Structure to design on (689 residues):
């Protein structure tokens, strides 16, 4: 491929989308499975026990309406007769085609999985396709280049491939995919995997591209942006290829949707998907607070969402690992509650026989999903509280964790929805450009309320506040930690004596604002020359000159990274202080939830097409049962919960799901009040207008 062709693709990636993204109302199958099949060439009898009836029985037992099946896995082998790639040496029939036929025969959709970033055979046969670092070293995951053949190999250990345009691997992928498109006239879609492994590549063709673009290879951000845009061009070309044969097919590129993948997320690679899928295994990675934010972001873009977990206990793709059916049920109910379809991962045994116990467990969960699925997907998050994103996990998820535990439902804020919001929370990172700062300031002056953590009100690349917060930046603190002393107006359930901030705040000088708390500094940092007791040095007996919290007009400024403090340390005082600030601003939520324990979750969806609002309530807190392993186990009855709604239209009917029981409610001075019947694990209240 000529370098001019690469430039054209890069331009096309930012301007063109072959298929329109699905709209939020175009819901996807709600009860899905992702069937891994990464199978070594050293294992014999591949697919020997595959039986169409047994395969179908598993899908029916699981109450499944879509399953992702494998065209090519991480070992580099295809599971169909191919003239472009290499069919698995111990497979003697078209397993992919047989699975597709079995699915379609019982009305189940079956998109094709295709690996991209990890492919052993391709990496071994074509080392020039492997990603490189700036020194020319091959990039890999969990591989020891000095290991002997019999040394134990680490989990998830693969060489990383560079699929960007200009390289032969990109062309090879296109040929593989075109062959599949031509062979299977009734395919449902593609699920392309592994786009998150490394943020940049210095393979020969990537270096050539960057040289042509004039990229300084020492500029990490520029290098990562170049690679992200090249990936976007690769995705765009793949998507157009699929569309040319199958215009109704879904196309998804895994990991392009995750907020934590900052380098590729900033370039909006998620736009190349027909829909959003959010892979997670909350028991051991991602956690149970990851889905709400990511789902709200993509639903806010009017894109349908599939939430993804696994039947596995500890690791994605493990054989013999089982999550209890109750945990699958809770996770599935959570997915529906936050407006997403459900998908649970499984891994097929190399001989092709489905594990019926797995599908029994999934089936129990999906039987419940079938009762509630009409009240989730197709809905859009509905709140007048917005969270501005920084794409720094400790900041964004620190805010999210606090809001979830306070039952303050939220949406993701941006310039497009400011007019619909009453309160916006800015994370502690410098995120604002001039346009955003000006828009937020104008919105604030018209009555919009702001809570700003530390540097969140500063312009990118500066140490000057772009928003009027009633105080000005002076300096960074010389201390590693400090303490806060609050004013009585914020003392609800907060101690009046100094409490520690494990990470110090910035120093500012009050101008036109009103201090609501002051910083109390320690005598000194803990060093070998100066230390006292076990940890933090005690605080001085008088306050510093620097405010910890400032109120100005409709804004509350915190000198500390309250978001990051809560994410890293989880001290309830910081969360309570955040709640007190929200209340001080007299914020009026659309839905107020009373008497739900803090581990419960709340999600309000607006299903405009059905003329209704749906508020979902969940309760089954994850329990830390082992190092880095959280489990869902206890379903306890929750009672005495009541709800208050501030809605902009009259409600005609209120009922509970899944029971369908109609509920009494009262409306007084624009506030709709009702009591929630006792429930376990999950319920939802539907308000029709």
């Amino acid at each position: 491929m000529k370098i001019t062709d690469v430039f054209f693709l890069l331009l096309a990636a930012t301007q063109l989308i072959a298929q329109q993204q699905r709209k939020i109302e175009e819901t996807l199958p709600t009860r899905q499975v992702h069937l891994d099949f990464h199978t070594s060439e050293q294992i014999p009898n591949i697919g020997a026990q595959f039986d169409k009836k047994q395969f179908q029985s598993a899908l029916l037992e699981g109450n499944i309406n879509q399953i992702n099946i494998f065209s090519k896995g991480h070992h580099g082998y295809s599971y169909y007769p191919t003239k472009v790639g290499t069919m698995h040496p111990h497979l003697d029939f078209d397993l992919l085609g047989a699975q597709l036929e079995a699915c379609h025969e019982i009305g189940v959709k079956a998109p094709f999985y295709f690996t991209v970033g990890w492919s052993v055979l391709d990496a071994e046969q074509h080392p020039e396709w492997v990603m490189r670092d700036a020194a020319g070293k091959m990039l890999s995951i969990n591989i020891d280049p000095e290991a002997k053949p019999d040394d134990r190999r680490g989990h998830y250990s693969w060489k990383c491939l560079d699929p960007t345009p200009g390289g032969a691997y990109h062309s090879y992928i296109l040929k593989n995919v075109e062959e599949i498109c031509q062979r299977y006239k009734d395919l449902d879609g593609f699920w392309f995997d592994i786009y998150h492994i490394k943020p940049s590549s210095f393979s020969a063709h990537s270096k050539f591209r960057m040289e042509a673009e004039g990229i300084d290879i020492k500029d990490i951000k520029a290098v990562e942006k170049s690679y992200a845009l090249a990936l976007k061009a690769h995705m765009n070309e793949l998507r157009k290829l699929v569309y040319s044969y199958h215009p109704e097919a879904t196309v998804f590129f895994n990991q392009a949707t995750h907020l934590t993948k900052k380098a590729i997320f900033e370039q909006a690679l998620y736009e190349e998907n027909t829909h959003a899928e959010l892979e997670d295994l909350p028991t051991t990675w991602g956690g149970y607070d990851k889905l709400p934010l990511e789902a709200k972001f993509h639903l806010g873009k009017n894109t349908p969402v599939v939430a993804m977990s696994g039947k596995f206990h500890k690791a994605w793709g493990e054989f013999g690992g089982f999550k209890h059916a109750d945990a699958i049920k809770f996770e599935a109910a959570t997915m529906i509650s936050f407006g997403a379809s459900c998908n649970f991962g499984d891994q097929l045994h190399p001989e092709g026989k489905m594990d019926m116990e797995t599908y029994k467990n999934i089936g129990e969960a999906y039987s419940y999903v079938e009762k509630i699925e009409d009240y989730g997907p197709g809905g859009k998050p509905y709140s007048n509280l917005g969270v501005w994103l920084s794409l720094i996990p400790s900041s964004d998820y620190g805010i999210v964790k606090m809001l979830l535990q306070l039952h303050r439902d939220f949406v993701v804020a941006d310039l497009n929805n400011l007019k619909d919001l009453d309160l916006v929370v800015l994370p502690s990172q410098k995120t604002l450009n001039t346009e955003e700062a000006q828009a937020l300031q104008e919105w604030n002056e018209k009555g919009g309320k702001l809570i700003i953590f530390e540097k969140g009100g500063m312009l990118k690349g500066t140490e000057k506040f772009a928003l009027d917060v009633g105080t000005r930046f002076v300096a960074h603190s010389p201390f590693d930690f400090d303490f806060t002393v609050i004013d009585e107006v914020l003392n609800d359930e907060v101690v009046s004596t100094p409490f520690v901030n494990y990470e110090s705040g910035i120093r500012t000088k009050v101008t036109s604002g009103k201090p609501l708390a002051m910083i109390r500094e320690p005598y000194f940092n803990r060093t070998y020359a100066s230390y006292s007791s076990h940890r933090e040095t005690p605080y001085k007996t008088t306050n510093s000159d620097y405010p910890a919290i400032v109120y100005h007009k409709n804004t509350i400024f915190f000198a500390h990274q309250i978001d990051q403090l809560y994410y890293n340390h989880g001290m309830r005082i910081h969360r309570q202080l955040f709640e007190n600030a929200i209340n001080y601003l007299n914020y009026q939520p659309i839905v107020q939830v009373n008497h739900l324990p803090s581990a419960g979750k709340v999600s309000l969806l607006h299903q405009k097409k059905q003329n209704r609002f749906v508020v979902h309530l969940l309760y089954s807190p994850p329990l830390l049962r082992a190092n880095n392993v959280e489990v869902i186990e206890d379903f306890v009855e929750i009672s005495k919960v009541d709800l208050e709604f501030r809605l902009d239209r009259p409600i005609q009917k209120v009922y509970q799901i899944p029971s369908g029981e109609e509920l009494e409610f009262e409306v007084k001075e624009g506030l709709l009040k009702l009591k929630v019947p006792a429930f376990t694990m999950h319920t939802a209240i539907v308000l029709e207008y």
User: Anything to note?
Assistant: The mean pLDDT is 96.
